[in-house]
Design goal:
This protein is of the alpha/beta class. About 50% of the residues lie in helices and about 15% in strands.
């Protein structure tokens, strides 16, 4: 009996120490070694055959810093990634456009090498829009072209709705803005079914993400199929694996959902950022893969209603990553879209 008691007490003490260690790990702030070069940037610069070198920098606002890469000259094109990823998810576009434009690819708050505040409020779209606008000011750009994928698409289109005076054109890949997606959740049961994963995401925590081997799930779900299809090289796949493997960063990135995606039964008017009927007044290009599992026709229909000058490009037999699987075609479409928007803006200013 005494031996059993000692064993139970010993196991209890061990579990208590383990619980304290997990708590300390989860509570410890996420840090970034800003002196260490971004390995994805090093890779992209190393494979380049042009004389356009990309640089990395940090821009701090109200105690939180965004990591971004930039290079090239001309009109500024800002690239915004989705979840679960970082700036490198738009590498085919950055690499293609940097010879003709000034490209800027941003690590969203909580992702990549940007800061990851512990408070959910920092990830509100309104707060992140103010941060992005301050970065655009810092870059000395009056107006920019925005290109976003997934959450980056929702953010880019919403930013364009909120700040039409700062955006020459917007391209959204594989996701609508918040006011269109919430409209679909209100009107369409199939949209609710498609978005059911969001509530599971919101309930995650770092320890659970480790226990579920979420880093492997992310790689096997998002990036391994692109490597297997030879749309990404093995080295590029390894960089994606490295860039999305930190469970604490993944949990911080999920704050985009926690801060902005209400339960379908709890949608309020204030959730329709920037507002329920906010318009996309500049030329807009919306790109989807027809096999995208998060595609919802109601959201797309609403987005077209809200757009003054929309172009919709759909790729058959393509899923959530058209800008990787169909990179040449997507890049050409974006180039033509940007050129048309720039010409229209110049003609308007000349009047």
């Amino acid at each position: 009996m005494a031996l059993t008691k000692r064993i139970v007490l010993g196991l209890g003490g061990l579990l208590a120490v383990l619980a304290l260690a997990v708590f300390a790990w989860v509570s410890w702030p996420i840090s970034v070694d800003r002196s260490a070069p971004d390995p994805a940037l090093t890779y992209l610069n190393g494979k380049d055959e042009t004389d356009v070198e990309l640089r990395e920098a940090y821009f701090e606002r109200e105690g939180a810093a965004l990591h971004y890469i930039e290079g090239g000259e001309g009109e500024t094109v800002v690239f915004l990634h989705g979840f679960p990823s970082f700036w490198f998810s738009l590498l085919r576009q950055v690499d293609d456009f940097k010879g003709d434009y000034r490209v800027v690819a941003v690590d969203g708050l909580g992702a990549g090498q940007s800061d990851a505040p512990g408070d959910v409020e920092s990830y509100k779209l309104e707060a992140m829009a103010a941060h992005l606008e301050a970065l655009i000011d810092h870059l000395g750009a009056e107006k920019v072209h925005l290109v976003g994928h997934d959450w980056g698409s929702a953010f880019a289109i919403g930013f364009a709705q909120r700040n039409p005076d700062r955006v020459l054109s917007v391209t959204g890949l594989s996701a609508p803005p918040m006011n269109a997606s919430l409209h679909a959740l209100e009107q369409d049961e199939s949209a609710r079914a498609t978005a059911s994963y969001v509530e599971r995401f919101k309930s995650a925590n770092p320890a659970l993400l480790v226990a579920l081997s979420t880093d492997e799930t992310i790689y096997n779900g998002a990036y391994r199929p692109l490597v297997d299809a030879e749309k990404l090289t093995q080295e590029e796949g390894a960089l994606f694996s490295q860039g999305t493997s930190d469970p604490k960063r993944t949990n911080a990135h999920i704050n985009w959902y926690r801060a902005n995606a209400p339960h379908p039964d709890e949608i309020t008017e204030g959730d329709f950022w920037p507002s329920r009927n906010a318009l996309v007044s500049m030329p807009a290009l919306y790109i989807w893969g027809e096999d995208d599992q998060i595609f919802n026709q109601s959201a797309i229909d609403r987005l077209i209603e809200l757009s003054d000058d929309p172009t919709l490009l759909m790729f058959p037999d393509v899923g959530h990553w058209p800008h990787v699987r169909m990179a040449p075609e997507v890049n050409l479409a974006i180039r033509e879209h940007i050129a048309r928007a720039s010409e229209a803006s110049a003609a308007q200013e000349a009047r």
